[in-house]
Amino acid sequence: MVQSNPVDPQVLILGSGFGGLEAGKVFRGKPVGVTILDRHNYHLFQPLLYQVATATLSPGDIASPIRWIFRRAANVRVLLGEATAIDAANHRVQLADGAALDYDFLIVATGASHTYFGHDDWGQHAPGLKTLEDALHIRRRILLAFERAERESDPATRQELLTFVLVGGGPTGVELAGTLAEIARHTLRHEFRSIDPSQARIIVIEAGPTILSAFPEGLRDAARASLRRLRVEVREGAAVTGVDAGGVTLGAERIAAATVLWTAGVAASPLVRSLGAPLDRAGRVLVQPDLSVPGYPEVFVVGDAAAYLDDNGKALPGVAHVAMQQATHAARGILGRLNGSPSKTFVYRGLGNMAIVGRGSAVADLGWVRFSGITAWFSWLFLHIVQLIGFRNRLLVLVQWAVAFVTFQRSVRLITNDEGRSDRS
Amino acid sequence: MVQSNPVDPQVLILGSGFGGLEAGKVFRGKPVGVTILDRHNYHLFQPLLYQVATATLSPGDIASPIRWIFRRAANVRVLLGEATAIDAANHRVQLADGAALDYDFLIVATGASHTYFGHDDWGQHAPGLKTLEDALHIRRRILLAFERAERESDPATRQELLTFVLVGGGPTGVELAGTLAEIARHTLRHEFRSIDPSQARIIVIEAGPTILSAFPEGLRDAARASLRRLRVEVREGAAVTGVDAGGVTLGAERIAAATVLWTAGVAASPLVRSLGAPLDRAGRVLVQPDLSVPGYPEVFVVGDAAAYLDDNGKALPGVAHVAMQQATHAARGILGRLNGSPSKTFVYRGLGNMAIVGRGSAVADLGWVRFSGITAWFSWLFLHIVQLIGFRNRLLVLVQWAVAFVTFQRSVRLITNDEGRSDRS
């Protein structure tokens, strides 16, 4: 292992999600000096975040220290910090603490956060699920709702405490709803003396005509049937017009609910605005065919922060394998350019779509084959566990899943403090 | 399973630490109505808390939901809430949210928190380790110190960031020091590019004449030798006279350190003051031979909140097995009194003392036998794992320990947000 030569070209990677991590891996041992900057010291395996929010997994099970991942790559350094602006003209990134980092090549992989479509005040009542802090906050809210209901004597307030609304019928909304239903119907059974947790109402509200819109109709039907068995109410074509501390409003209708969770909208990380490049409606950079930014061939944007239009003019979905393929393409493009090769057009290899609905139930659309039920559930489990970073994480997640599957037990049901959040409950 | 008869005598247990939990277990299925009140919804296995603070275990591994523990005991109800005052004359406990709970019998098992011996302002610079929030805060501080050192160019500031001071040479201070040394010397090796984590200074400061004062001299020597091998500096008979953001002062001497942790003093939970009973210097209730409060035979205090003097006039130590034995005695005393039996004097059966020093090294004094080294370490491990509540917790802790032992890996190295704490770093 040799330290990178200080005269090597310097590559700066912003973000250590699926995209940033994959780009870093391509550069391991190559004649470039690489810096990975992230606000957190860990890579987060986002597809399992809802399992932390619903008390099945611990934060440490789905997060790995970035330093540890790159410990053997002497040419890769990892810095903890937050980028606030990109000065593309001067090849420089500004950090929140006043420092700056210069680069020869830049890969922006800062992802997306949730958006409330102009209603930012809804955020304090309906938290979204993007970070570990979000997941712990949601876990706290869900568990506190049951605790408060146990001590509540007024029947109407008690029913409000036992009503859970999920705004957004995408994979995250469906996964949260299914898991919440299991918690109420099975995990918490026998544990309360004044309330019956199985009487909890769980409602998924989707503004579009259908839940899981990225899936074919047959699989959507299978998901709806699974949710029905779990007594989850599914409302499609129902637009939320208001969110407050007491519930949600849908036009003339009112649903009183103490817990409202938001999985409806995502917008690209605001950092990319400082590039001055053209953006789409979700704030994503409209990248060139080689994923670089118009006018700055040394700057690449990958993953959820990029809008890469397919042949139909539709942006690729914000999922892990898109980010990873784009990151690999951008990193190889940089290495190629250092060798004098021309830039290449990114070609996406579709890997399909999967969503979990509940214990032993999932839907999978791999393009050439579609399936649902227990087979899809095991495939989902297998694929997600092998993708987790580190032997320890895979083993722990497998053990916890096996215990939860057999016993319905969710032992990470800890109400921990998070008073630092602005949207405290 | 039958719900308890509402005319049964009502027992209220404050706190769900080792004492409160044990008392609750004695009452399972007995003809009393039991309420367990705690500020948290989980029982915390405190002896392993330092493993959370040093990133080996997750919070969920050492905490179990109280409701789950008592799910099959229909006569036991669990409430989340904070007691603020005990009105012993009226058999009533006041809660922070304005509610009140009446009782026929009361067991106070609210434990202790750390004390700064009148220097409460030291608390913001030198956090103690009593709660899960404390552990996560300390974990954040330790990890951030290394991250900041990596980005620091001034050598003096860098050394300050890499200096860790533990005030207090009891078991917790020694355990933290040993684990910190392993993190610096092994776990973080190869992960940084600008600093060498193994150059970190770790200093244990004990005001008394010796560390581990509850142990015999031979075992103390063994512990000192283990700490020396880990390059931990041990300062005995050294009183800290000042703590601030930049380090600690010992009389004329100054040690610059970005991270100072406090394991020196404990004081009983302030709630017991409202009993109006005589207290000792640490704020503990001087209980009667049957553990009841003078003047209130229906109120018992057990564990760290009680001072039970042995034949030499010395209070029993604040450890788990004292609390558990006292709780069992108090609970059986209540059941006996309901059957007309007279109250009995509490007799403590000493079970010995153990402390872990580092990987594969511990000291154990069981009274009839004393040993140190790897045998003591395995005994410590075994005893603590079997005492953990729930099969899942035991299995997970065993797996994580095995991985950490073989690989030196500590994967729960997550810097998560805790801005809500008043002593933010």
Averaged pLDDT of chain A? 92
| Portion in strands of chain A | 15-25%
DSSP E strands of chain A, number: 25
Rg for CA atoms of chain A: 22 Å
Helix and strand topology:
The structure is a homodimer of 425-residue chains.
Chain A: E1 10-14, H1 18-27, E2 33-38, E3 42-44, H2 49-53, E4 63-65, H3 66-69, E5 76-80, E6 83-87, E7 92-95, E8 100-102, E9 105-108, E10 112-114, H4 132-151, H5 155-161, E11 163-167, H6 171-187, E12 201-206, H7 217-229, E13 232-236, E14 242-244, E15 247-250, E16 253-256, E17 259-262, E18 266-268, E19 285-286, E20 292-293, E21 296-301, E22 306-307, H8 320-338, E23 353-358, E24 361-365, E25 370-373, H9 374-387, H10 391-407
Parallel strand pairs in A: 1-2, 1-9, 2-5, 9-21, 11-12, 11-17, 12-13, 19-22
Antiparallel strand pairs in A: 3-4, 6-7, 7-8, 10-18, 14-15, 15-16, 20-21, 23-24, 24-25
Task: Provide a descriptive summary of the structure in words.
The structure is a homodimer of 425-residue chains. With 425 residues, chain A is of the alpha/beta class. Chain A folds into 2 domains: 137 residues, 3-Layer(bba) Sandwich (FAD/NAD(P)-binding domain), CATH 3.50.50; 201 residues, FAD/NAD(P)-binding domain (3-Layer(bba) Sandwich), CATH 3.50.50.100. A 6-stranded mixed β-sheet of chain A has the order 5-2-1-9-21-20, with helices on one face. The C terminus of chain A is likely disordered. At the A-B interface, strand 4, strand 5, helix 4 and helix 10 of A face strand 4, strand 5, helix 4 and helix 10 of B.
